[in-house]
Amino acid sequence: MTLTDPAPVTTHIAPGEPLLSVRDLRVWFELRRFGLGVAGYVRAVDDVSFDLYEGEAIAIVGESGCGKSSLMRTILGLNRPREGRIIFDGRDISRFTREELRWYRTRVGYVQQDPYGALPPFMTVRSILEEPLIVAGVKNRQARIERIRKAMQEVKMTPVDDFLGKFPHQLSGGQQQRIVIARAILLEPRLLVADEPVSMLDASVRVEILTLLRQLQQDHRLSVIYITHDLSTVRYFSERIFVMYAGKIVEKGPVDEILERPKHPYTWALLAATPEPDPRNAHMFREVPPGEPPSLITPPPGCRFHPRCAKIIQGVCEVKVPPEKEVTPNHLVQCWLYDPDVSPDPPDM
Q1: Rounded CA separation 227/261 (Å)
Q2: Backbone phi and psi for residue 93, each to the nearest 5 degrees, phi listed first
Q3: C-beta atoms surrounding 128 within 10 Å
Q4: What is the rounded distance in angstroms from the CA atom of residue 57 to the CA atom of residue 187?
Q5: Based on CB atoms within 10 Å of each CB, which residue in 125, 154, 285, 289 is the most buried?
Q6: pLDDT tens sequence across 95-138
Q7: Is pLDDT of 244 > 90?
Q8: Rounded to an integer, what distance in angstroms lies between the CA atom of residue 228 and that of residue 163?
Q9: What is the pTM of this model?
Q10: How far is residue 75's CA from residue 107's CA, in Å, rounded to a whole number?
């Protein structure tokens, strides 16, 4: 059976409009106690909104536990949102049926963080790549083989016949990740979600994989969501950066603008902690925010970064949630430091 497009719930997007729109998204996970029912919620994603355009690559960055993986899983249709909408190509995926989700997953590719864990150890490369084509309804065996060969050539796994009969443990880490990428592009998706695709690889291989992803994005005009905690790689892969902290996107804007002129104190702290290949760093102390990220079960009121912020405005930051302000064209930040009614002289980070 070949999957067919479900009927759109909104008008089809026109050229220049977002391919993916996330609006007021909340993803909360229930905490239950035996005999007491719901005891609380983990607010993994809390009121997140953004747009992703055709052929654009964005990076979602933040430390572990900030909610970026929960956001990714919800965009993939693996989690159901508590509130909000995710509009893909004019269709609201948050209300999709199981059959509509099957269609959607043929339009979205997923590159996992751990390539060895993502590949079934008992299947050959050929079987691994043939399975999604069978599930998607490609019945002709020769057509499946041709698509597999094309995908493997695109990820530079050549000669193809040398790899088709191998098992994952017979491949290097970089080769395993190339197979994961080949599987992600087999069905010719429009959106690719890459969840820290190079964090498990040697430093020498990371550049190769990022260069490969960038080339595939340009060749196929893919929209890409690149999830990472490593700000040192985003400059070479993304057009925009979204900085996430404690379930919220606190700053977003063009890559150069964010990296060279960060506005939110948390973004500044992330950049300050990014290692640079400079011998002087061995004798240099870098300031980092004190404390730990807040609990997403009981997040702090007001700005969620205020318990760790060195630039806190007493009586404001710990009470009121900051609105999103456009400080320069297309550079938005959620911080009271840039509200002229609260802070007449915004700091220079």
Answers
A1: 21
A2: -75, -20
A3: 20
A4: 19
A5: 125
A6: 888 888 889 999 999 999 899 899 999 999 999 999 999 998 88
A7: yes
A8: 29
A9: 0.89
A10: 12
